[in-house]
Design goal:
Layout lengths: L7 E2 L2 E10 L2 E8 L4 E7 L8 H15 L9 E7 L2 E7 L4 E2 H5 L6 H20 L12 E4 L2 E4 L4 H5 L31 H4 L6 H17 L9 H10 L5 H4 L7 H8 L11 H19 L22 E5 L19 E3 L7 E8 L5 E7 L5 E7 L6 E2 L7 E5 L6 E5 L2 E5 L7 E5 L6 E3 L4 E6 L4 E6 L6 E2 L10 E7 L5 E7 L7 E6 L6 E4 L6 E4 L3 E6 L2 E8 L4 E2 L4 E5 L13 E3 L4 E5 L6 E6 L5 E16 L5 E7 L7 E7 L4 E4 L10 E4 L5 E6 L4 E6 L1
Antiparallel strand pairs: 1-2, 2-3, 3-4, 4-6, 5-6, 7-8, 8-9, 10-11, 10-34, 12-13, 13-14, 14-15, 16-17, 17-18, 18-19, 20-21, 21-22, 22-23, 24-25, 25-26, 26-27, 28-29, 29-30, 30-31, 30-32, 33-34, 35-36, 36-37, 37-38, 38-39, 40-41, 41-42
Helix pairs in contact: 3-6, 3-10, 6-9
Amino acid sequence: MTLPAGSRLGPYEILAPLGSGGMGEVYRARDTRLERTVAVKVLPEHLSLSPESRQRFEREAKTISQLSHPHICALYDVGNAEGVEYLVMEYLEGETLAERLAKGPLPIEQVLRHGIEIADALDRAHAQGIVHRDLKPANVMITKSGVKLLDFGLAKAIAPSSPRGLTSFPTQEALTHEGAILGTLQYMAPEQLEGKEADARTDIFAFGALLYEMATGKKAFEAHSQASLIAAILERDPPPVSKVQPIAPPGFDRIVRRCLAKDPERRWQSARDVALELAELGSGAVAFVAAAAKPSGKRGMAGWVAAALLLLALLAVLFGPGRFRQRQATATTPVRFTIPPPAGSTLQGMLALSPDGTRLAFVATTADGRDRLLVRPLDSLATRSVDGTDGAEFPFWSPDGRSLAFFADGKLKRIAPDGGSPRTLCDAAAPRGGAWGADGTIVFSANVGGSIDLVPDTGGQPRPLAQLTSRSGEVYRWPSFLPDGRHFLYYVAFGDPKVMGVYVGSVDSSDTRRILPDADAAAVYAAPGHLFYRSGDRLMSRPFDVREMRPTGEASPVVEDVWWDGISTLATAFTVSSNGVLAYQTGGLSESQLLLYDRTGKELGPIGAPAAHFEPMFSPDGRSVLVSRGVKQRSLLTETWLADVGRGTMTRLATDPGVNSVTALWSPDGRRVAFASPPLGDVFVRDV
């Protein structure tokens, strides 16, 4: 059954399809009574065939609707319209865990965070006597506020009175039987396969398979036929997580192995037990994502905080050659904690750790609407505003940590972090980052990144480094020094794609070399030998030989959902100290939802899905909207989309390869579109 846009199920107006599967079709809809967006699931026909089945379904749906938990998708309503059974659920924005796993395994910190959230949700439901019975990646949604479990408990309600047989082997991507009590084969516990009653421990087995797949990117049980897959679940254990994913922390194998015990009596007996084990493992596990130098703080800030709450996260890090690992010669204690901005203020994605990793400088818009430089010692709970830094942008520290440089009022300035009068060093309009060398020189990018300039830290007339003068429209941004204080990294953006990427340059010569052609943003070096840079919204680390000035290994993800400005400054909100402390601001590429309103201010509904939207513009007849959308996985790239106001749908207008559309305009007759591409503003015209 396919419901057209504009049709209704009771008080719910269908807006657009969201997906379909063996358990029915899901639509985005509008609740006309409460004026909110919801998700409506139309259930399979077999639910309508038996009055007894409908009554059982409605009874259990009412029970599930009473579940209130931040990591369980809320069930709002259940109904029947002209013989069509439907559910009304919370509308969620994000991607399923199955979609995320298609890109590879999750960083171990996310495995632990999402694992705790899932276990907590399971525990709440089990306490009310509700068992999921079909826990799998497709039923876990990853949102900005954490995971949400879908279809919670409905597997039992939707199941027919007699299980269907296992008659054929489906694809590896979809081993689900429509309406079957058996659930999804690859995540089923042995007792389910044997036709025994499922209980909370059945969900724990599926949860163990989920943890395994999140950490390794591989399913715990795989086979070439259905019979051999069933045999594997009943008789064999999957390879240890540590063999598939060596960076997994000690103890994680034990947790997963006990979840996957064949005998329910040998498993964890409650989801609460698993959540507590994962939380206890959390602080130690970070050391294997990036092991930690011993902190200098005195307040015991070693608590592991769920990243769904992060405004700013810091992680003490220490790197071994070629792979993250603990340094055996030093006792290390990982530290992970959050720093919220002061009350009434907003972070601006501009961070700088002092070289010794003890203080964090960042820019925030304070309650009075001004951007100021703030400093927070990491062994203190107090954040102090630095006087004389109104309008501050892109701070960076002196090598000795006694001064901070920043940009404001079209100037490059320096100031003591404890306060005092700022000193102007030189003109620097439209800055795009700077770095302070050990010999007292500063390199910085200004004038919208047209070149990398050099100036003494005592002030003077800046001089452009000749080898970095713009040639064909590219811009040079975000310089950072390498340990020798003479070579530095910088990022080349826009212009010819063949020259974009991360380069290494020198203050002593005109020699330059591209070292990371596929990087989406600037890179920063961290001792003893890694480059940090962003790819999409992931922060990556790659081994780097400072003597040879070249990468020496493959890149590995460190954290995800790092804040970045993909259109104007190209800034990424992270910073690394000389002794291995990493600070980053979360948030990814800022997204927004296009909403349509009438002239009275009444909301008529959303248009398209959330994205990084820029400069929407109505067509002359008011039937369409042009809007530029940022591409989440790529810096510098936007696409022009056409939104149909009546249908609420969006269509991407084809663009030429390499054209990054920023501003789009309608022709007076509404038949053509003109859009420009940065940085030189070439204009393209296309028929709609």
